Amino acid sequence: MKAVIIGIGLIGGSLARDIRRSDPEATVLGMDISDAHLEAARELGLIGGKASDADLAAADLVVVSIPVDRIVEELPSILDRVGDETLVIDAGSTKAPICREVASHPKRRNFLACHPIAGTEFTGPAAAVEGLFDGKVNIICEVEETAFAIQERALDLFRELGMRIRYMNPEAHDRHIAYVSHLSHISSFMLGKTVIEKEKNERDIFDMAGSGFESTVRLAKSSPAMWTPIFEQNKKNVLETLDEYIANLKEFRALLDSDQYEALYEAMEQTNRIREILKGIPLNKS
Amino acid sequence: MKAVIIGIGLIGGSLARDIRRSDPEATVLGMDISDAHLEAARELGLIGGKASDADLAAADLVVVSIPVDRIVEELPSILDRVGDETLVIDAGSTKAPICREVASHPKRRNFLACHPIAGTEFTGPAAAVEGLFDGKVNIICEVEETAFAIQERALDLFRELGMRIRYMNPEAHDRHIAYVSHLSHISSFMLGKTVIEKEKNERDIFDMAGSGFESTVRLAKSSPAMWTPIFEQNKKNVLETLDEYIANLKEFRALLDSDQYEALYEAMEQTNRIREILKGIPLNKS
């Protein structure tokens, strides 16, 4: 098996690790706008070296794990260059703009639109971990647009990685993911911003913050380069979730301001249901 | 050593475990408004049995680990009943209302106002864990109001538990803790509420939510019985933090709505500083 990873960071690098583990004979090569990342990935043993256009044409698998704005820009030209039987997958956190961009591409049948729900708040090849995808969900969009034989090879790979597959249309994906992922990142970034602005003396944050704060603010460590284009591409859905979140915060504020403690209690108690919901999530604490 | 734990939940129960570990000869008794909790705590080996008023009078240490509204209600009468040399500590997440309530109590010298920054989102005696306080910060307020000899015994106990001590006045405590703890809980509760309201079909949340969502929404599992009185007692500070948080969310919304992606990027990048700040926090992942 010959694989080319375009964008050798946390996701691409973790996938490279898993491919090499499951097939020690595999040739895994990389492409990256950062030469330093490519070199680090080679030193970490994630890739054997830099891929050329000839490698793209000869690849069994091409993984496009770059920020979503660059997927939209580069996916058409990547498809131009791959072979007739190459499987191309992405790992973007938005799906509608990407699927739209390649809808009428002559090699649309080579592409499978994916969103593996896996990752950490860290970035770059050094953040790559083995087994990142094990037990995680992989959301596949527009499966019917991909050639049967190519679909099949993708499913074999995901089974090998231990992933659970869910099929969804791109618009539904983008709408739901705005709630369970994109909004979490904004709430965390703005929580971090609020506390940093207030607490000029960082010693006070350091000493008084417990694991609860750490947990809620964890996503504020995430990469702006990755997240800015996600918010841009999913703008409509994200604005809607933000409006609902702000409305709920204002309602909480109004209840507290007018001393309606029973109503506050009830709002929190009803939200405790999240305990049962979360029990089903396969967690990745790394 | 004879200790009485009033409120034998996560905090009281964990303290009971640590006391018994460090002094196997210790007599540890409990009081609780819930007979079921008392019985569970006895069965779990956290306490030897139920404490009487005579036990309070003879106790070396009384721990008041109950919701903050009940601390304000009951602390004066607890102080009335303890012995002249009994050390009484609380573990409330607010400090100003509690300190005000007992300011002129004849036994004020027996009380040390504490806030151990330790805990999880779980409650009740079954949630008690050994070593919960190890490496954590304990914020002590108005230390000068406590008798020297009694202070000393408290510090010996905290050293035994592995805690780091920070002294602070009650008003500063309540102001800072609103940012690094109380606001986190509200942001998490309202995030959970927003997602639950939208996603009537819980299967969708379950399948698409990753560890990022789990982390940001973790505190929404917390007990409304514990948190409603905290928000009530710290209302003024909490309203202020909420206003700033909502203003930051609205600003983010406005930047996204008007396609100002460079400014969005910068806001997130500046908040990435939280990485360095968090490095100093002794985490409790349990």
From TrEMBL, chains A, B:
One of its GO terms (molecular function) is NAD+ binding. Residues 1-286 form the Prephenate/arogenate dehydrogenase domain. The keyword Thylakoid does not apply. GO terms for biological process: tyrosine biosynthetic process. PANTHER family: PREPHENATE DEHYDROGENASE (PTHR21363), PREPHENATE DEHYDROGENASE [NADP(+)] (PTHR21363:SF0). NCBIfam families: PRK08507.1. This is Prephenate dehydrogenase. It comes from Robiginitalea biformata (strain ATCC BAA-864 / DSM 15991 / KCTC 12146 / HTCC2501). The lineage of its organism: Bacteria, Pseudomonadati, Bacteroidota, Flavobacteriia, Flavobacteriales.
